[in-house]
Design goal:
Helix content of chain B: 25-40%
Radius of gyration of chain A: 22 Å
Number of strands of chain B: 4
Structural class of chain A: alpha/beta
Number of strands of chain A: 11
Oligomer: heterodimer
Distance between the termini of chain B: 20 Å
Strand content of chain B: 15-25%
Largest interface: A-B, 27 and 22 residues
């Protein structure tokens, strides 16, 4: 038995409503996985070529082509360490926890296939230390895998890392696992050149490995039977805010926002806007629901799904207060290493809070946009760029509301509870 | 071979000497941290750039041959190495 071409859902097929899908059920659903041979030549391993044909891109946020990454790390001369990034520091995302806790074998399949191609002898799964249930589910799944006892199998560990927005940044993750702080370092060198313990390291998101497992089993043509030519396959999206069933859904590339909302049980209340891509993403007006979630088409408009996040902001919330609270949180989550980020995010958060509290007689309102522009591409990581996108797109999309606050100060909704979480809340699907 | 100014934003502590020595391409933001304008560095400008690099107390500013690190990543070659 195996998933038919075009069958949907694909990643979430067979997902139990609680607990993890065991190995026997996983294999009954997907069929056995034949591990690909080790890469011999520097060019053209069949699986890497297949990943390229499939058009697989990372699902952690950056959307980097997976084949390119595998090829680069495989060309480094010594077998790479594999680091499975399940840290998911973005409070709006819970898809990696869901996947790892409910369908751990699909992620493990992808990791083993990559390890086999690259000749890796070391695999590390990194999970937020708060996700204990997920870590347990993953450990149990790993214990079921007999091939990990075989000679020559990679040594696999599950490592808990501190929670935090930046922990999932790949250099920060490498640094914290090597005993340092969860802070980015200046690139290059990139992890594929010098990562864990100075060794070449393949760092990819948990979902990316699960997708890789599907391509390894079924090939690129099968992969492309769902989605569009420019955004092939499916992806997981964490949907939050004013929908009837907030949580993780799987969508094919090119699905409209309207269809996504439908998959989440429809709108639970009227909305004033949509946040695409989380706290490094972009605000869109409430009438943007015909937008197609096709990663390539979005990128042409300067939009990103990030790690797969959509939030529907209810009309009852105050957008100015929401943006101020997230800006302050991001300022606190900064590694405080780079001058423009330290100063810029502080200034932006201060000005937004003042706008909410007292209005803006000193006209700091216009400066927020300038500060946002001033922090872009000036940090060691992209945290300031993401924060700038989050704030400026809100200013652009909801200008009358910001101007109203500038004139009159706090509104009634300013004092209510925030919709957007500013701490990694107990994950809905952690099991 | 064209050279390019590159700033390590973590190492930079905002002394600001670079902007004083090379105002043609480097200015300071309102917090005192350098903003580097892109553009070809040749002849006299390259000389100014070298002086700015030499003056940086934290070695945050460097001159690098254009290694196209992002482009390299997407055309399958690891940065700065022959494959």
């Amino acid at each position: 038995m195996s998933l038919a071409p075009g069958q949907f859902p694909r990643l979430l097929a067979g997902m139990p409503s609680s607990g993890a899908l065991g190995l026997a059920a996983h294999q009954a659903l997907h069929g056995p996985l034949t591990l690909p041979p080790r890469q011999r030549s520097r060019t053209g391993h069949p699986l890497i070529l297949e990943l390229e044909r499939a058009g697989l891109r990372g699902y952690g946020g950056a959307g980097f082509p997976t084949a390119t990454k595998l090829h680069a790390v495989g060309a480094q001369g010594s077998p790479p360490t594999i680091l499975v990034n399940g840290a998911e520091g973005e409070p709006l995302s819970s898809k990696d926890l869901l996947l790892t806790s409910r369908l751990p074998h699909l992620v493990i399949d992808g990791v083993l296939a990559a390890a086999s191609v690259l000749g890796s002898d070391r695999v590390i799964f990194a999970l937020d230390e708060h996700a204990r249930g997920t870590a347990r589910a993953l450990q149990q799944a790993l214990a079921e895998r007999r091939e990990l006892q075989h000679r020559g199998a990679p040594a696999v560990t599950v490592n808990a890392v501190p929670g935090g927005y930046l922990t999932g940044q790949e250099m920060a993750l490498v640094n914290v696992l090597d005993g340092g702080e969860a802070k980015p370092t200046t690139t290059p060198p990139y992890p594929f050149e010098r990562g864990l313990k100075g060794r070449p390291t393949l760092v990819s998101n948990s979902e990316t490995f699960a997708q890789l497992a599907l391509v390894a089993r079924h090939g690129a043509d099968w992969f492309r039977t769902l989605g569009t030519a420019t955004d092939p396959g499916t992806r997981l999206v964490t949907v939050g805010g004013a929908v009837s069933y907030p949580g993780v859904v799987e969508i094919a590339g090119g699905t409209t926002l309207k269809q996504l909302i439908g998959a989440s049980g429809g709108l639970a209340q009227p909305i004033q806007g949509v946040l695409l891509g989380g706290y490094a993403g972009t605000w869109l007006p409430a009438d943007a629901l015909d937008l197609r979630l096709d990663a390539h088409m979005l990128l042409e408009r300067g939009l990103r799904l990030g790690s797969g996040i959509v939030v529907l902001l209810p009309e009852s919330a105050c957008i100015v207060a929401e943006v101020a609270s997230v800006a302050r949180w991001l300022q606190g989550e900064s590694a405080h290493q780079c001058g423009p980020c330290i100063n810029g995010l502080q200034s932006i958060a201060d000005a937004l809070e003042e706008l909410c509290a007292r209005g803006d007689r000193r006209r700091t309102y216009g400066r927020i946009e300038r500060w946002c522009e001033l922090v872009i591409r000036r940090g060691a990581c992209s945290l300031p760029d993401g924060a700038a996108s989050f704030v400026t797109s809100a200013l652009r999309t909801f200008r009358p509301l910001f101007e109203d606050h500038a004139r009159h100060g706090a509104c009634d909704a300013c004092v209510g509870q925030r919709v957007l979480p500013t701490a990694t809340v107990d994950p809905v699907y952690a099991g | 071979m064209s050279e390019k100014l590159r700033l390590d934003p973590i190492a930079c502590t905002g002394h600001g000497l670079c902007a004083e020595l090379f105002p043609e391409r480097i200015w300071l933001d309102e917090w005192g941290f350098p903003v580097i304008e892109d553009g070809e560095l040749s002849g006299e400008l390259l000389g100014h750039a070298r002086r700015a690099v030499d003056a940086c107390p934290t070695l945050a500013l460097r001159l690098e041959r254009e290694r196209r690190s992002t482009a390299v990543r997407s055309d399958l070659r690891p940065a700065g190495r022959k494959s």
